Every structure is written in structure tokens, then in C-alpha cells.
């Protein structure tokens, strides 16, 4: 068999036993890993998993693997195709050997999208690691009132923010004294490429499980997930350090309930972290764990390449920026020429505030992204948050080693500041409404003389997989939106069941608030002629 001459970073299609060929990239083996003769270590695009694959089951990427435009493709597949096309433009394709690695070439293309540029090169100071991660849904809840007034100065925060968003049009050269290397940044400007969405989920399509993804946790042991709720810290540290290659000095402002856990996971993964909190004593645990202390936000900025802000709300996030020792002062003293700092807003803020903060940061020469966290404090502690990112693409890619340590899934939406906040708000609206519906149902059980605990237990042991059920609902909604619906349950039937529930609640004088509102949406959709359509056509009643 001819040698296929694979090199580090080559785009390929790799086939793992039991799976269809998968878009991948030739990767650098683990530091402690042993080279396997006749095999190559590959990174599966999208699933963010690695595996040793036999050379005979790997082919160089070719446009011939891309399915026809008229072939039905999932959103993830479409995103993945866009990604591999974008990546292939950056380097010429190698001659593809006509080897059939799957009897059904029409099913060759299930790729998840993610920015994969294997940046584990020797010159890591100019090529930051592109280790990627994944993320979750929850608003940062840190009970901290952060105001930069420790030096006694009282300033109008909003006025200062306005002045930095709309600065006077006066050009002047700022004198820089960057004698301290810690004030410089290792961030690398990456050439422009198409901004892609990617989901780090292990589901190739909505109807397939993680087990259907080559290199997934079912096949490889590279997922950074601890066993259930009991994750041995030493084991987690070993896992993180094996698959996360820190390349940046990290600053972290706001070491509260959520922030402290994120700092811990960054330290476990080998990152150098400098922390600041308005209440210095809250930094003590992080300092004991190996973090450095910054006396002011400006100090943290000067000591770091990437600065994360994780405070209680938009007001606290804005207050960090201003003042004689605020973030903006640190940026002003650090940025010069091609050197810049990156600022990541983790705080749960509204889209307008995200945009305002971003304008202040970029106005001082920094780069900015907002990264909305979805998940719990426990997720933060285990590194299994989910994160939705929008903003500067270069900074996003430079943050990947941090995100990989922090999260289980990450989605880059686009470069529009505020988009991440909008996603988070919608996600939390869905979760909040779901809790409301469950509360409705549990209250209803009481007047029906049914034990709420028994209902919950019956749901748990009924064999219903709520994860699959949720994915099925999303599939149906997507099909309705794209006018490609297969009827699974008619809208009129579901509305009839809703009516029965409403009537019973009226009889017992027990309101079911959200169910009643949902029923009105069903009735409206029905009146618009969707009675015989799939139940997902209820969306017509919401428009």
C-alpha cells in the first residue's frame, strides 16, 4: 500500500471501526503517548476527540467527499462542511488516493463544526493552543458588590463609560514604557477566516447519541468528564493537563461563588492565573491553590494576556472598567502597536451593556468577547460548563485553552457583540418556563390527590429519556421552521389533550397558568389552519 504522506495539521477523512468516515486533522500525539506504528493520531473535527487511526483508514481531504447541495443535511453537518471548506482554503489540498473507506460514500459526511487549527507548534508564543472546549446555561450568581472606590475617589461610572465609548476626536501619541514583559501580550492575530458556528456536543445528528461519534467518550478516554458527581481532583488535574495546553497568562476578576470554581479549574489545567476581588479575603483560597494576587484591576490587566471578568451584574462589570486603577487604565498602560490584551466578559449582562463594555475595551486597544456561561457551580468546579461566545474571532481562538479547561461545550456564534447575551437569555427563558410548567403540574397533582413525589418517581422510572425527548422536540421545531415536517402527532390531538387538562383544572378550581397560556397558542395555530399539521406547528400561535 502506498504511503499517504500525512503531516501534522493535514485535513483528512478518518474512519474508526463501526463508524462512517469522519472529517479530521492530523494531530500532535500526547506528550506522554507512545507512537503507534502504522497509525496516526487524529483530531475529529467537531467532536473534539482524539484517537489513533490506522493509516489505511485515513484519506486526505478532497472536495469529492462533500455531498451535493441538494442532499439533506443537518445544521451541524452544514456548519462542518463550511468549516472544512474554510480550513482547506488556507492550505492546498494534497492529492487524494482513490481508496474507498466506506461502502456507502453518500453517508460520508457527518462533521461537527469547530475552529480547528492545530496550534501545538513549537513556537507556541506565536501560535497559541487551539485546544477547544465545551460549555452550559446559567447566569453567573456571585453575591459581590464591586465598586472601584477603595482609594476614596467617587466618580460617575456612567459618565466615564460614555467618555470612553465616544472619546474626543483628538489624536495624540501615548508614551509607553513596556519594560516589564508581563505588561505585554502573547495574543496572536490570526488571519481572517469565515466565522462558523460550532457545537461541541457529541451528537452527530439530533437522532444519534454520543456513541455514534468517532472518538467520543464511548470510544476514547479523552473527554474531560469526571465520574458522576465524584471527581477526584488529582485525576481531574491529570486529565486537564494532558489535553489542555496553556499558552496564555490569565487574569481573573471576581472570585465569588462561580469565579472561584473557574479559577480552580484553570489552575488545575496548568494556567498561570492572577486574581482580584474587591473583598481581598475572597481571593485567599485561590492564592493557596496557586494563583497570584493582583492589588487592583489594572494590576491584573498588566500581568495577563487574557482577562476574565466574572462579577454579579452589569453594574459591577462596568464599575471595574473605570477609575485610576481600573481595567481601562491597565489597558492604556499595556497596549502598544501590535501588542494587545484580550478581555472576556463572563458576567451575565444584557446585550446593551455587553456592547457598551466592548466599546470601552476596544477603544483602549484591547480585543473583546462576551462568553455567556450556561451551567451550575458544580459544572464550573468540574469543568463541564457550556459557553456561548460572540465577539472578536481572534481572541476567541486565543482563549480556547481556557475554554477547554472550563467547559464541556462551546459555541461561537458570530462577531456581533450582544449575540451571546441574547442566546443566554433565550436559553434561560426555556429553562425557566420548563420549571414553571413542572410547578404547574405538581400543584395540579395535589388537588387530584396524587402525590407529587410519586409523580416525579414515576417519570424517572417510566423509561422516558427526557434528553432524547427534548432533542426530538427540537428536531420537530426545526422541521417546521424549514417546512420539512414529518407528522408525529397532530396539533389538533395535542390541543384536545390540553383542553382536557384545562377543563379538569377549572372543575377543581386549580389554575394551571402556563398550560392555559400554551393552550391559547394551540387554539390560535389551529384557527390558522394548522389542525392537521405536526404539533410543532404551535409556533404559528406564537407569531
Automatic annotation (TrEMBL):
Main location: nucleus
One cellular-component annotation, GO: chromatin
SMART domains: PWWP (SM00293)
SUPFAM superfamilies: 6-phosphogluconate dehydrogenase C-terminal domain-like, NAD(P)-binding Rossmann-fold domains, Tudor/PWWP/MBT
UniProt subcellular location: Chromosome
Keyword terms: Chromosome
Polar residues bias (residue ranges): 148-165, 203-220
Domain PWWP: 8-64
MF terms in GO: DNA binding; NAD binding; NADP binding; nucleosome binding
GO biological process entries: transcription elongation-coupled chromatin remodeling
InterPro entries from the UniProt entry: 6-PGluconate_DH-like_C_sf, 6PGD_dom2, 6PGDH_NADP-bd, HIBADH-like_NADP-bd, HIBADH-related_NP60_sf, NAD(P)-bd_dom_sf, PWWP_dom
Ranges for region Disordered: 148-186, 198-220
Family membership: Belongs to the HIBADH-related family. NP60 subfamily.
Name listed for the protein in its UniProt record: Cytokine-like nuclear factor N-PAC
Organism: Trichonephila clavata
Gene symbol of the encoding locus: AGAP009949
